[in-house]
Specification:
single chain; about 170 residues; mainly alpha; 2 domains; 9 helices
Length: about 170
């Protein structure tokens, strides 16, 4: 599919352009969703023309992937801000923003999985997650997952461990 074909698709205009960008990058729908911080379900619905992209999601896609907003909206001109897709500009094709290769689990062994489960069941971390969820308007599970990820990255029992409050 060419940029012109994607632009002229009458039924799924935005979805066709999203699919074109994804295919040009050689990405899966899961990777595209991950790069935009949305669920795979949400992204796949966008590709088939169900649902809408919020202005923030449009901005994220254009900024992170080097896509021209006009092209995404209308299909006119080149899809890329530069003359080439961002992959050619140095974005590694097989690694997520957090450094974990796509398609590989975040944990490598039983000990890592046990640590994740222990953190998820930790009452202090659950209390922090509840407070974070309430303040930020997030689902509690998402806040807990974020805190677990931070604790794992920092190698601490909780994200706040070892930090003194002022």
């Amino acid at each position: 599919m060419t940029p012109r074909d994607a632009a002229q698709d009458t039924g799924l205009e935005l979805g066709s352009r999203l699919r074109y960008i994804r295919k040009e990058l050689g990405w899966t729908q899961a990777r595209m969703a991950d790069s935009l911080a949305i669920s795979l379900s949400h992204y796949s619905k966008l590709e088939i023309g169900v649902g809408r992209m919020s202005p923030l999601l449009v901005l994220a896609l254009c900024e992170k992937l080097g896509v021209r907003r006009d092209w995404l909206k209308t299909g006119a001109g080149s899809p890329w801000k530069s003359n080439r897709p961002p992959e050619a500009a140095g974005l590694p094709p097989e690694v997520r923003d957090d450094g974990v290769p796509y398609g590989s689990p975040a944990f490598r062994d039983a000990a890592s999985l046990e640590r994740i489960v222990a953190l998820a069941q930790d009452p202090e971390l659950q209390k922090l997650a509840a407070g974070m969820a309430a303040r930020l308007g997030l689902p509690r599970d998402k806040a807990l997952a974020s805190l677990i990820q931070t604790a794992l990255q920092e190698g601490t029992s909780t994200p706040a461990a070892g930090k003194k409050r002022s």
